[in-house]
Protein 1
Amino acid sequence: MSVRVRIAPSPTGFLHFGTARTALFNWLFARKNGGTFIVRIEDTDMARNKQEYDEDIFEQLRWLKLEPDETYRQSEHRQAHADALRALIDTGRAYESEEPAKDDPSKTVRVVRLRNPGKTITFTDTVHGDITFDTSELKDFVVARSVTEPLYHFAVVVDDHDAGITHVIRGEDHISNTPRQILIQEALGYDRPVYAHIPLILAPDRSKMSKRKHDTSVRTYREKGYLPEALINYLALLGWNPGTEQELFSRDELVRAFSLEGIQKSGAVFDDEKLRWFNRQYLVTEDEETFAATVTHIMKIGLEKRGVAWDEKRAKQLMPLVRERISVYDDLRSLIADGEFDYFFSRPTYDPHRIPDKKSTPEDAAAYLAHAAEILSSRKNVADVKEVLWQYATEKGRGAVLWPLRYSLSGKDKSPDPFVLIEILGADESLSRIAAAREALKEV
RNA sequence: GGCCCUAUCGUCUAGUGGUUAGGACAGCAGCUUUUCAAGCUGUUAACGCGGGUUCGAUUCCCGCUAGGGUCACCA
C-alpha cells in the first residue's frame, strides 16, 4: 500500500508556522516513501472562511516548495459526507435528534448524534505509543448539524477514508479528537490509519502560540525577507531530529534523513534568534545577483524615505558590506532607517568634539588627518594607501590616527574601518571629507 | 475541574543501567588592522522532586509537581 498523507488546514487565517511544519513533516514523509501529499482545505465553516486565506495557504506552500500532489476542498465532498451520514442513520448507528438550537434556544433543530457504544479505545500513536481513552464520557456526541451538514469530525473521517489516507500526521492538539474520530470510523466500517501526533510549537513563555500575541504567519516572515530554505531547515528541526549532530540540511538531505521515529514527544519553543542564525547561513550563500537585486530594492526605498540621493554605483560597492552585517533582509531596512548608510551616499556632518580620539588633542587629530590626507593624495592604489597609513598609525597610535580618520569619513561613532570606507568612497571623496573634518576641527 | 500528553543547559536537542552528560542558538571572555559588524578560539550553563527496582539510576516502575492540549450544533 503506497503512502498517502494530507494536511487539512481551514481557511480562517494566514498560513502559520504550525501548519507549515505539519505540512513539511507530511511532505517529507511522502517524499521519503514515494507517497502522495494532499492538501485538503477544510472550508465547511462558511461563516469564518475567507478566500484570501484560502489563497494564502497555497501561495505560502508554493513559496516553501511544499506543493501538494493533490488538492481539494472539503466542500466539494458534501455529497459523500451526506451519503455516509445517511448510511449511518439507516443502519441505526446514528440518529436524528430534535433539540433546542444552541445559538437560539427558542428554535429547534434536528442534529445527528452517533450512537456511542461507550467503549474504551486504544490507538497506537507512532510518536507517543499506545494511548487509551474511555469514550463513554463522550456520550452520543453530535456528528452533524443536520442530515446534510456534517461536522468536522465526521467530514474528516469520511474524507480521509475516501482519499485513502494511510498516515495521519497532525498536531498534538488532535490527540483528544482521535477517539471520537475512531468511533465514527468504526461505525462506518473503515480501516484505521496510522496516527502520528507531532508536538506543538510554543511561544517563548511556553504558552501556546497565540495569533494575538505573536504574528507567526509565514507571509510575515516572508515579507521580512526570510529565505524559504532557512525557514524549512529551522522548522524541520523543531520537534524532529535525525539523531546526529547535523543541523544544516538541504532539501534532499532532509528527505533522506526524515523519519517519524525522530519526532520529539514534547513541545518546542519557537526561537527567533536561532531562526535568524539559520537565515544567515543561507543568506551568505545567496548568489550575488539575487542578493544585489534584493538589497538594491530595499536600499532605494529606504534612502528615498530619508531624502538621501540614490547612487547606483555606490550601492553596488556596498554589497559585501551589507552581506556581512545582516541576518535577514529586514535588518537592512532597520539599518537604513536608522541612518546607518546615509554617509555612503551623502556627506556626513561632524560633531567637532568627536573627531579626536579620546586620548588626543584636537591639534593632534588635525595633524594626523593632514598626514593621512597627504598619504592618500600621493598614492594611486588603495592597497598602497593602506600599507603606508597602517604603518603611520602604528607609529603614532592606532586609535589616535584611525579614529579621527574613520570619523571623518563616516561621521559616526560606529562604522566599518577607514580602509574599507576609503575603498568604497574613493580617494577624491575621502580627501574632501577629511578636509571638511579638519575645517570643523578648527571650531573647537 | 475531568480526560489525555509531556518533562536533559535560558532555547532547540543528542545520549546511556556505570559517560568528563555531547552538539547548536543565545550569553560571557579573548583574538583578529582603533570603533561597529562578521569571523575564529575558549567558556558558563541541564538530567524537576520523592519513593522504589538495582551493586549502581539521568536512563526502568510508581507517586508528586510543573507545563501543555482537549472537553462546540468551530475546524
Protein 2
Amino acid sequence: MSNPRPSHPSPAPTLRDVAEAAGVHTATASRALNPKTRQQISAETARRVMRAARALGYQPNSVARSLKTSRTGTVGLVIPDLTNPLFPPIVRGVESVLEPGGYNVWIVNTDNDEERERAQIDSLRSRQVEGLIIATARLDHPLLRHLHEQGVRMVLINRQVENLRVPAVTGDDVTGVAAAVHHLAALGHTRIAHLSGPLSTSTGRARARAFRHAVRDHGLPDDLMPECAHWSESDGATAMRNLLDRSPGVTAVVAGNDLIALGCYDVFAERGLSCPDDVSVIGFNDMPFLDKLRPPLTTVAVPHHELGAEAARMLLDTLDTPDRPARSILLPVSLVVRGSTAAPRTD
Amino acid sequence: MSNPRPSHPSPAPTLRDVAEAAGVHTATASRALNPKTRQQISAETARRVMRAARALGYQPNSVARSLKTSRTGTVGLVIPDLTNPLFPPIVRGVESVLEPGGYNVWIVNTDNDEERERAQIDSLRSRQVEGLIIATARLDHPLLRHLHEQGVRMVLINRQVENLRVPAVTGDDVTGVAAAVHHLAALGHTRIAHLSGPLSTSTGRARARAFRHAVRDHGLPDDLMPECAHWSESDGATAMRNLLDRSPGVTAVVAGNDLIALGCYDVFAERGLSCPDDVSVIGFNDMPFLDKLRPPLTTVAVPHHELGAEAARMLLDTLDTPDRPARSILLPVSLVVRGSTAAPRTD
DNA sequence: CATCCCCCCGCAAACGATTGCGCTGCCTCG
DNA sequence: CGAGGCAGCGCAATCGTTTGCGGGGGGATG
C-alpha cells in the first residue's frame, strides 16, 4: 500500500535517527557511515549502523555536511547560453572529469548579459562553489579581476584576460583561421571576406586578427571584414547581405562561426546564389549535423569536449595545489573540408 | 595593487564580521540585511549594517542559511543528455519561470543509465532540492514510485507513469503522428513505415501506438514498424537499412524523432536513393537547423521551451500548495512541411 | 596479579545563519 | 507622576554533521 498522502511526508531521517536505531551516538554513526573513518569503529557496530541507515533510507544531508566541513564538492560552470550547440559538449567534457573527481557541476546561463553574469556568479559563490569554470566570451571586465583578487579558483574557456594570471584553455584559433584562408587561397580565391563575430568578445577579436594576418601572408586584401553584432544566424545574414551589396566581387567567406555561416546560407537562398559555385563558405566549430546541410559545410573543428575536459583538469589541479603557476593551453583544431568550398567560377 | 597571492585569500567575511564592524549583534545584522525583517530595526542601524556589509564584501553563506531554514531555493532538473538538441530548450524553458520564481536549477545528466539516474537523483536529494523536474524517457521503474511515496515533489516531462498521480507535461504525440500519417496518405502513400524509438521509453511507445492507430484509420497496413534501439542517428540508419532490405515497397517513413530521420538520410546517401522522390521522411521534434538539411526535413514541431516552462509552473504550483491534485497537460504540436515529403513516384 | 596500551566509543564544540523570546529604555497618556 | 506600551536590540537555541579529545574496558605483557 503506497503512501496515500505524499503531501505530508514524514521528515527525512537524520543521522540522529540512524544512531538511535542502531543504539549508538551520532558520532559513532557518522564514523561508521564514512568509509574513511570506518576503521575506527568495530566491524560489528559499523554493520549495525549501516543496516539501520539503509533500513531508514537515510541520506546524509550534504547541506549540513558542507557547513561543517566547508567543502561543497561543487564547482560552477558559467556559459552564455546552453541553447548554442557549442556548449553542451563543453559541459559534458567538464562533467566527464569533474564527476569522477568527486565534484558536481552547477551550470548557469548568462545570455551574455553583464548583469546576469554578475548575479549568477554571486549566487554560485554564496552557494560556496569551490571553483569556477567560465566559458563566456565577453572580453575583460572588472568582475574577473575582482574574483581573482578574492582568491576565487577559476579557469577560463575560450577567453583570455590580459594581464591576469588565470589558467585558460582555448582552441587554436590562429591556426584554424590560417588553415581556412590557406584552403581558399589554394583553390584560387583572391577576394576572401571574414564575417567576424562581435569584436567585444575575445574569440571574435582573436579570429579577426588571425584572419587579417592570414590574408596578408597570402598577399590578399584585408579590408573585407564586416563585424556581426552577435554570434547568430540572423546577424550573419545581415552582415552577408551588406557585404554582397558593397563588395560584389567577394567569392569566398570565412565565417566567425558556424551559425554565421548558416546566415550566409540564408542569404544565398534569398538571392539565388549557389554555394559553392558562386561563393564558398567556411564555418568555425563544427557543430553537429553540419555534414547534412545543403551543401555540407566546410568548417574548422574545435574539440569542445576536450576543451571542457581540459579546463576541468586544470581546475582540479588548482584546487589541489593552489600555488601552481597558471598555465594556459591551446588545443589543436582541424579544418574539415566538405561541400561548401570550391574553386571560384572562372568567367 | 592587486593581491599578489590569491592562493592565500582571507576567509570570506561572515555575518559575525559584519555585525562586529557595525557594532551590533549578529541577530541584528541578520535582520537588517533581510528586507523582510528590516523594519524591526531602526533605519540608522540598518544603514550602518548594510554599509558594513558592503564594505566587507559580505555574501551570505547560503549553505548555513539553508541548514537553518531548511529551504535551499533549488530544484533539480534530470535529463538524459544535454548534448541532444532536444533538451537545451527545455532547460531554458524551465529556468525562464523558475528563476523569476526565486529558484535555481540544478541540471544533471543520466545518459539514460538507470544506475546513473539513481545516483544523480540521490545526489540532488542529499543536496536538499525542493523539487524535481524529470525529463528522462525511461518507462516506469520503481524509482519514481519510491520518490513519490517519500513525498518528493516532482513533475514529469515527456513521460507518463502508469498508476501514479504525478503531474506531467508532454507534447501531443498522438495528434502529431496522426498529422504526419495523414499528410503522407494525402500525398498518395500506401506503404508507410514507422521507425519507432525504443519501446522501453514512454515516448517511443506512445508514438508507435499512435502510428498504428493512424495507419489503421487510413486503411493502411500496420506491420511496418521496426524499433530503433536508441534515439540516435546510427540506430535510425540500421533500422532503415533493415527495413529497406525486407520491405522494398516502402515509400514513406515516419521517424520516431529527428535523429532517426537523419539516420535515414545517411542510408539514402549510401544507396543512392533520392528523398523525397524515392522515399519521403518525416521527423519529430523540429530540432534546430532542420530547414538547412538536404532536403529540408518535414517534421512535427514540439514546443520544447514551453514544455519546460509549463513543467516549471506546475512544479511551482505543487511547491506552493502540495495538496493540489496532480493534473497533466498536453501541449499542442504542429506539422511543419518542408522538402522531405512528396507524392510517391508513379511507375 | 598489576600495569600499560590500545581499541571503541561518547561528549561536546563547532560551522554560519535564523528566529522566538525577553529585556531595556523611551515615549505617551491618563 | 506613574503605568503601560512599543520600538529596538541582544540572548541563546537550533538546523545536521564532523571531529578533536578523553574515558572506559578488555587483552596482552611482565
Protein 3
Amino acid sequence: MKKKLPKLIIILGPTASGKTKLAVALARKFNGEIVSADSRQVYIGMDIGTGKDLKEYGKGEKRIPYHLIDIILPKTEFNVFKFKKKATVAINNITARGKTPLVVGGTGLYISALVDNYQLPLGKPDKKIRQKLKKMKIADKLEALKKLDMMTYEKIDKNNLRRIDRALEVCFNGQKFSSGSKKKPIYNTLQIGLKFPKNVMNKKIDKRVDDRLLEGMIGEIKKLHAQKISWRRMESFGLEYRFISRYLRGKYKNQEMINLLKTAIHQFAKRQMTWFKRDTKIHWIKNKSQAEKLIKKFLKK
RNA sequence: GGUCACGUAGCCAAGUGGUCCAAGGCGGCAGUUUGCAAAACUGUUAUUCGUGGGUUCGACUCCCACCGUGACCU
C-alpha cells in the first residue's frame, strides 16, 4: 500500500533562463504559488543583483503569491538546512490550501535537498568547533577525519577545506558525516528544466548584466554598504555583489568589472548545468506549452 | 627609407645553449557537490617556441634572411 505523496512541481535552470516568468505563467494557469529555491533572493534589500523581478508576479488580484523571498536581513546566515525546513513548511501550506506548489530556482543543492529528501547530518555550525578547526593543520584534520569517519575520509576532496571542516564539525559533534543520506522522497515531483545552447545563454546573461546596471544595481550595492554591510560580507552575496563591491573599492575599472562579472556568471551558469545534468529525471523543455502539457498530465495522475 | 626592440597555446606570460619532450595565470572543456552552494574544490588544455636556412654533439635560447608588430629617427 503506497500512500499518495503530495505533488510538487519544480522549475529549474541556469541563471537568466527565464524561470520566474515561466513559473508565474504556470502558476496562473494551474492555480499555483511559488516557492523560491534561491540562496540569495531570501535577503531583504537585495533586489536587482539577485534578480528578484518582483514585478513579474503581478499586482492586486492577479498577484501570484511567492515564498522564501525577502524573508531575512542580510546579516542573517542562510543555508540548505534552513531552506529545506522553510520550503517544506511553505509547500505543505500551499498544498493544504488546495493550491499547486511550484518550486522555482537555480540553486541545485537546495532543489536536491527537497527532491531527494536529504537527511542532513545533525550538528549545526558551531563557533567553538570552527575556532578549533582554524588552528588545526590540514594534515591533522585529515588524520582526525580518518579516525572518526573513514567513509567520508575516503570520499572527500582532500584539498577542499570548507568540506573537510564541515565534516569534522559533524564528527566532533558525535555523529558521522557519512550518516547523511537520501531518504524516501516525501513529494511526488515533476522537474521541469529550462536550458539553452551555451552561446545563447551567455548572450542572455550579458544582456541581463547590462540591464541591471541600467536599473541601478551599483546604487543598490552602495546603499547596502551604507547600511553597514561590510565589503567582506557583500562579497558573499553572489557575483554581482562581489564584483561591484570590488569596483566600488577601486579594484577594477568600470568596463573591466563588467567583463569580469559577465564571465563569472557564464562560469556559474555552467556549474549550475553540471549539477542539473546529473539528475536524469529532469524534463528539459523548449517552450511554455511543453511545460503545460507535462504539468497537465502530472496533475491528472 | 633608417635605427632599435619584440614575435612562446584562444589571451597574458616565465624561460636566454643541455632534467624546457616549455613554468605560471586567465579563458575553455570535463567533473565533485548533504548546514557558507552565485560557495568551496578537482582534473584537463603547446609532439612545440613567427617562417626558412645556418652554427653546434645539442637551440625556444647563437648567426643570417624573410614576414609581422611596436617605438624612435629622417
Protein 4
Amino acid sequence: MVISIPKGTKDILPSEVYRWHWVEESFRDCCARYGFSEIRTPLFEHTELFKRGVGDTTDIVQKEMYTFELAGRSLTLKPEGTSPVVRAYIENKLYAEPMPAKYYYNIPCFRYEKMQKGRQRQFHQFGIEIFGTENMMADAEVIALAMDYLSGLGIDDLSLRINSIGCPACRTEYKKVLQEYLAPKLDILCDTCKDRFDRNPMRILDCKSPVCKEATRDAPRMIGYLCAECKEAFEDLRDNLTALSIPYTIDTDIVRGLDYYTKTAFEIVSDKIGAQSTVCGGGRYDHLIEEIGGPPTPGVGFGLGIERLLLVLDAAGIRIPKPEPCDVFIAVLGNEPRAQALQIAQSLRSAGYKILTDVMGRTLKAQLKYADRSEASYTVIIGEDELQKGVVSLRNMKQSTQKEIKIDEITAEIR
RNA sequence: GUGGGUAUCGUCAAGUGGUCAAGACCCAGGGUUGUGGCUCCUGUAUACGUGGGUUCGACUCCCACUACCCACCCCA
C-alpha cells in the first residue's frame, strides 16, 4: 500500500522549483524597492487569533481551518497571513518603531476546501501590509506594488477592480437599506442567501445563483451609501491611482470574505485561469489591530496567490529562465587519476562553477552521455594519459571540440 | 456539502469478449576494449484504480467504491 500525498497538497518538484525561485526573488526585489521588510511568523497560531481576526462567522473560521488540540491548547495552521503579522506587530511592540510599518511575507496557508483548479488546501501566498496610516496614498502604494510586481513578471492582461465597503458606521446604515430592498424578494433567493439575509446581507450581492443575481441587479450598492469620510477616501484612492497611471474598474460587487476589511477592497483578476480567477486580493482593515489587542492602528495590504500566479504565467506563455544545471563535468578514467579529478572538481566549485562528476563508477562513454544530459558546457577528461603528461582533456560539448590543456588553464578556457 | 468527467508500464498512449496487453518517450547497457548529442541493437518494469457481478472466458459489459480533474460555493 503506497502512501500518497494528502488531498489538496502538491509536491513542488526539482523540475519546476526554479519557477518558484523566480517569482519569489522577483517579489523580494519588488518589495525592497518599495521599502518593505520581510517578516516571518509561525506556521500555526492560537485558534483564537483567527476567530478574532478573520471573524467568527466567516466560512474560513467556521469550516475551513486546520485546528488541532495539543497540551490543552487549540492551535490552527494559518489560513491567511494578515492576522499573524498583526499579532507579531503587537506582541513585539513594533508600534514603537517609525511609522508606517511596512512588511511583506511569503507563506503557506491552509484551508480545508474542495479541490479545484487554482484552489488547494495548502496554498502559498505573498502578502504585504502597511500599518499606521489612514491615508489613501498607502492603499495606492499597496496596489501599485502589486501591479508593478505583476507587470515586472511580464503579465499585462490582468484587471484591477476596486470598491469601497465602507466603515462600520456607514456599513450598518447600508445593511438596513439593503435589507429593506431585499425583504420583499427574500422568498425567491437561494437558500444560502436566505441565511445571509440577517448575518451578512452584503454577501448576497456576491451570489452567483442566477436568481439572486437577477434579484440584486438593481439593488442599492454600498458605494452609494458611504459616509462622508469613506466617500472622500474612495475619491482619494481613485485620484492616487490615476496619478500612478494605474487603470482600474469599479466593481461594486466586490465583497471581501474576511470580516476585518473596511473602506478599500480590491482584486486583481485574470480571465485565463479558470473559475478561481482572483490572483491578488486585498484591502484596508482599520480596526483589526485594535481588535486583536493592539493600539488603534489602521492598516492596508494584500494577499497574492502564488499557485494562481504561476497559472497566469503559464497561460500567458511567459518563459521563466531555467538555471544552467552544470558548467563542467569532470570525467575520470581509471583509479589513478581519481584523486586529481576530485581536486579539480573541488577547486572549480570553490571558484563558483557548477561541477558534476561521476559518482557511479561509469565508463567514459556513459559519463559523457550523462554530461550531455546534464547540459554541461564542458567536460574535463582525465585518464592515465593525461595524468602522465600533466594535462587534462577539455571538451567543448556544444562545439564537439577537444584539446589538452594544463590544469591551471581550465578556468581561463571555460569562461 | 452538491453536480459533471476521467481512471492501461515512471510518462504519453493503442487495444479486441477469448494468446493477462502494442508502440513511443524516459531510464540503463552495448555497437567504437579512452569519448556525448544522430542512428542501430538489447535490457529493466508489481500497467489494465479497488471490490463485486454477468459470462465457458473480461482489460474490454453491469454495479458499487475510491482517487484525480473540472464546476457550484468560497477565496488567494
